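Why does this matter for the project? Reviewers at the last site visit asked to see concrete outputs rather than summary tables. In response, this paragraph embeds two records directly. Each consists of the residue sequence and, immediately after it, the corresponding structure tokens. Nothing has been edited or filtered.
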Amino acid sequence: MSSPEAHEITPEARRDVRSVIVEKSCKGLHLAVRGLSERPEFELAELLAGRESRGERIPVVTLLVRDRRDADVIPPALAWLTSRGRRVIVRTRVVLPKPIVRALADAHEQGGDVSVELELAHHKPILQRALLGPQADSAAALLLQAQHLETLRLPVIARLGPLLPGVHDHAGPGLKVGFEALLRNVEAADIRRVVLAVGELEPQQVAALVRTQKELSTTGLLELGKAFGIDPMAMLGAVPLALSEIRRLKPRRAAALIVGLEQLVRSAGLELPTCGCGTHCALGPPRAANDYEVGYESVMGRDLFAGLAY
């Protein structure tokens, strides 16, 4: 249940605030969900039924993992979705707890279409947390677990982002360009599939980057502020930061950034999606034209009113 007062909710209670992102995919709609309750199957049935009642199909659902407390919620949600023919992506910025890994392995063994997407923002832990939040684990820790997931034959994709001008296309003090260093870590973990996500900039991210500005070059920090229309003196910490809304890159600036970074990915011999779909389906196993119909079960029947007695 989204709340207009979400910005005042404590970190401990934030998990109870549900958010849903809807995107188009090659085969229908793609839902990305976080903040499910302890009975996720009822919430998922409601979400999917609301779309299906309008004639929309949702073959792909992403479950967002923000902290380790999701270990109680993700496994039943994963089992419910895969048993109804949905493709499930678990996108995480923390090392997955054992219950989630077991649930993924079980679903895969039973023929479910599951994959793991690792959120990697920067090779430096302090910048990884500045961009993804204080609960985020380091890129090194996530990539270490990726090697274990690969032994379970679970598809793993590196989601590199949020990618920002001045952060990922400039070098920090005495270091290579931030994106190149992150890419080398991905290569070393033997992950071949990569998705690039150009970032928006939220107020808390700006504040965190200003606090950690010694990890970035002055030129890069000023370039970041220029790209998002933020006072350069505020970016340098000389004056208070007055920012209350999410800032977005202009389309031309975002396109220029992504093209340059894609060239680095291809030069490293890594795979990028070719369909433009947010579910990176082109990176997954090939499918027949009607493959999503096999096992796909509408929730408009037995699931729609399953929670009324609860």
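We now turn to the second protein, recorded in exactly the same manner.
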Amino acid sequence: MIEGGPAVSRRGRRVLLLALVAVGGLAGACYPNPDELRNGSGGSCQSPGSTCSLNSECCQSGTGVNEGAFCIEQTGLCHATCTLNDDCVSNCCVPVTGETLGACMSASFCGLAGVGDPCSSGSECASGSCDGWCQESCSAADALCESAPGTLRNVQGFYNWCFDTSSGAACFPGCSTNSDCTVYGAAYTCQSGPDVTGVTAKACSL
């Protein structure tokens, strides 16, 4: 379980005590995508990812909200509660001041890299998968390859692209020239081809 800190702000929003983020299995934070965690209550409360000023405004049940939600002061948004990184879309659960449950936040809150960012091991990635860059599967129906929820570009400043591979479609970091790909490994070059939707794109590959 997450051990929270001591206080709640005067406006009733929970304050993330980032200094007490656990180092082990709770070393991350995840931010629920409002499109994926939409509450089915007909709009009588604010779903995760929606703006808020008080906890009471956030949906405490519904799709994507298993054990309630907090209104987090740092973002001004409703965030689903969590106890483990795996509970969250971004694989990152941050402790909340004065609470036993944490809040799902964006991977940046706990230093996890996004899709298309350079990495050396899966533990560095919000997706949990690394092979030169933080990887994630994709499809023609889900080809956006966001680096993180709400963030289209990776840390190198390029869009990621969804390409077919022998083991299924996966996200590849975009590029303009070969030099843009050396950060992922000396063997990678900038190659051009159609992505899963038929759009011609340039991405780093072997």
